[in-house]
Amino acid sequence: MRRVSRFALASAATAALAVTVSACGGTSSDAAKSEDGGKSKGVAIAYDVGGAGDQSFNDAATAGMDKAAKDFGVGKKAVEPTDGESDADKIQRLTELAKQGYNPVIGVGYAYAPAIKEVAAKNPDVTFGIVDDATIEAKNVADLVFNEEQSSYLAGVAAAKATKSKTVGFVGGVDNPLIRKFEAGFVQGVQATDKSVKIKRQFLTEKAEDGGFSSPDKGKEAASGQIEGGADVVYHAAGLSGQGVIEAAAAKKVWAIGVDSDQYKQKALDKYKKYILTSATKDVAGAVYNLVKSVQDDKAEGGVVRADLKSGGVGLADSNPEFTKMKDLQAELKKAEQGIIGGKIKVKTKL
């Protein structure tokens, strides 16, 4: 089974990674002592809403951390979020990780932006990373951002070619600018491929704290409604809630399109994988790994580190054999990928 999308060439670090993300839970720590016997050293990540075991965004970050810890012989620690937490809670969490000697300290998700900005200013000798759509101008902060709209465009192409009912769906976890990028790319990809295809769209919540990224039941209900309305392909950008979307698609024997990680490969979703057509991926694992490597090489720098289709930082998974059998789809995807990379196709970040 191939681990690299045929629609995105992996970077050297990503190719070396080649890991399967597995579900995990709780706070984990595997500390390596510094040479002088001082504090534990290594990489630390603070999870986004949904925590470990989401089979998507957070688990991809975990995979990058685990691989880096193994390759570089350093410690690792992952910390779960709490329900309804404030920026002050995030600040305390990041501060504690920095004081414990972890470097880099990575916040998974845009919600960590205010906390990282404050903590990084007080800890200039520690490298911080933030995964997702946030830009923090600081010498010791790496903004790990992705062109999610590009992989979502490809997901839209796949949906438009795979649908038989001429109706597809999109389920977003939270109505915010980041998830609107997924929506915009998907809608553009569908419409560019087949203007006659109808698109049903729904966002689960207005705010992340209301469970948009952490409620499979909400995802299942939304997807079920779209499927009852005629959708036979549903794409989700909803974190843990997306598991409900995939479950609903499998129950009705229609296609689901996953997000962030190659969800066809996720053990927790194994009984549904027959119905996971593909996934719009972003190499969160590779971004985390590369940041740890830069710290180990004493070459860590702040600023935007952008991953796009050209660099292989985003792409479309091709693990499902049924997906690769669709010859017309493969040709259409190749054409779209070349158009995006060459600049002929400009993918929107909002509608």
From TrEMBL:
GO cellular component: plasma membrane
Domain ABC transporter substrate-binding protein PnrA-like: 46-345
Family annotation (Pfam families): Bmp (PF02608)
Listed Gene3D superfamilies: 3.40.50.2300
Signal peptide (UniProt feature, chain positions): 1-23
Entry keywords, A to Z: Cell membrane, Lipoprotein, Membrane, Signal
Identification of the protein by name: BMP family ABC transporter substrate-binding protein
Source organism of this protein record: Streptomyces longispororuber
